[in-house]
């Protein structure tokens, strides 16, 4: 059994066995634990889970969106990435400009009411089309506020200065690899109200040892079934990209979660995944012609040898 799937599945079993039932912001309900850590040796393969298909293209385009400093959904939609759609859609349907059918609690209602779901899908499609084709609409309702990309690349300090945290990390690794300040923080207390979704993975830090780059990322809140597999793959990819630019090999990826939970409507999906036998992990190849991580597009990233079990669908809690 590969170690990536093993530690993930062990976490799922632990939550189901020892977790506490809790209410949550979305009204869905969770089974939750507080405080957990997972470790992945990136030398053993790229930690994209094999017990269900995790769409690497979506992981890659989301990360590249962050690295561009972008906060508007247009880039994601142009790359057929819809993992953030619901949060932008929520911003539109809760606005005074929206004149369509009532979309109150659309996330929960669409799961239990087939007729409503048809109407919801029509409105969601209309929203997606307007973000891609209408510049004014995209500026107003496609932007998610000062989320990850803004914080990573254009952090605004109390001194009024703007800081590119990713560029700082790269520069610091090159000049002082033993630094204990190779850290990026996405949690800006003064800007939480200007974000459609406050950062879940709120900070990460790099560590260089023996020519290898390791990364630890921290999460305040984590949807284990839908979110965590993406988060693991995303930070593994980020580590590979920064190691590539800094002429380092990859070391270890460490995940630290606070409120680590399984949504109540994901339990059956988790149980299905627990029944599957893990397969060999894939590897990742980066386009050697690209020197800067900011030059990469998702087609410059090649996933080799990925042979997972089929995808398992589950609703997103908004």
Automatic annotation (TrEMBL):
Transmembrane annotation, as ranges: none
Residues annotated to bind dUMP: 25, 180-181, 220-223, 231, 261-263
Subcellular locations according to the entry: Cytoplasm
Gene Ontology biological process terms, A to Z: methylation
Primary localization: cytoplasm
Matching InterPro entries: Thymidate_synth/dCMP_Mease, Thymidate_synth/dCMP_Mease_dom, Thymidate_synth/dCMP_Mease_sf, Thymidylate_synthase
GO MF, one example: thymidylate synthase activity
Record SUPFAM superfamilies: Thymidylate synthase/dCMP hydroxymethylase
Name this protein carries in UniProt: Thymidylate synthase
Enzyme Commission code: 2.1.1.45
Enzyme class at the top of the EC tree: transferase
Protein family membership: Belongs to the thymidylate synthase family. Bacterial-type ThyA subfamily.
Reaction it catalyzes: dUMP + (6R)-5,10-methylene-5,6,7,8-tetrahydrofolate = 7,8-dihydrofolate + dTMP
Coiled coil: none
Catalytic center residues: 200
Pathway: Pyrimidine metabolism; dTTP biosynthesis
Keywords assigned: Cytoplasm, Methyltransferase, Nucleotide biosynthesis, Transferase
Function: Catalyzes the reductive methylation of 2'-deoxyuridine-5'-monophosphate (dUMP) to 2'-deoxythymidine-5'-monophosphate (dTMP) while utilizing 5,10-methylenetetrahydrofolate (mTHF) as the methyl donor and reductant in the reaction, yielding dihydrofolate (DHF) as a by-product. This enzymatic reaction provides an intracellular de novo source of dTMP, an essential precursor for DNA biosynthesis.
Thymidylate synthase/dCMP hydroxymethylase domain: residues covered: 7-318
Pfam families reported in the protein's UniProt record: Thymidylat_synt
List of residues binding (6R)-5,10-methylene-5,6,7,8-tetrahydrofolate: 223, 317
Assembly: Homodimer.
């Amino acid at each position: 059994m590969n170690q990536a799937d093993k530690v993930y599945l062990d976490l799922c079993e632990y939550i189901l066995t020892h977790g506490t039932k809790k209410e949550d912001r979305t009204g869905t309900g969770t089974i939750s634990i507080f405080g957990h850590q997972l470790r992945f040796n990136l030398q053993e393969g790229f930690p994209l889970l094999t017990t269900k298909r995790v769409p690497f293209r979506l992981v890659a385009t989301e990360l590249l969106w962050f690295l561009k400093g972008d906060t508007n959904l247009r880039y994601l939609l142009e790359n057929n990435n819809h993992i953030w759609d619901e949060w932008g859609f929520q911003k539109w349907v809760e606005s005074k400009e929206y004149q369509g059918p009532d979309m109150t609690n659309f996330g929960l209602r669409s799961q239990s009411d087939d007729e409503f779901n048809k109407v919801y899908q029509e409105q969601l499609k209309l929203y997606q089309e307007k973000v891609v084709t209408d510049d004014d609409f995209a500026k107003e309702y496609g932007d998610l506020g000062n989320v990850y990309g803004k914080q990573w690349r254009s952090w605004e300090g109390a001194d009024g200065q703007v800081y590119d945290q990713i560029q700082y990390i790269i520069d610091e690794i090159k000049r002082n690899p033993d630094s204990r300040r190779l850290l990026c923080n996405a949690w800006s207390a003064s800007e939480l109200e200007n974000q459609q979704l406050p950062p879940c993975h709120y900070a990460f830090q790099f560590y260089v040892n023996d020519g290898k780059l390791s990364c630890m990322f921290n999460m305040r809140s984590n949807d284990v079934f839908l979110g965590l597999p993406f988060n693991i793959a995303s930070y593994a990819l980020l580590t590979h990209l920064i190691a590539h630019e800094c002429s380092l090999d990859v070391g270890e990826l460490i995940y630290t979660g606070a409120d680590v939970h399984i949504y109540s409507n994901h339990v059956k999906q988790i149980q299905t995944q627990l029944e599957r036998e893990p397969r060999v992990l894939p590897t990742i190849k980066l386009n050697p012609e690209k020197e800067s991580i900011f030059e990469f597009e998702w087609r410059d990233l090649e996933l080799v040898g990925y042979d997972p079990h089929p995808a398992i669908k589950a609703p997103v809690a908004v």
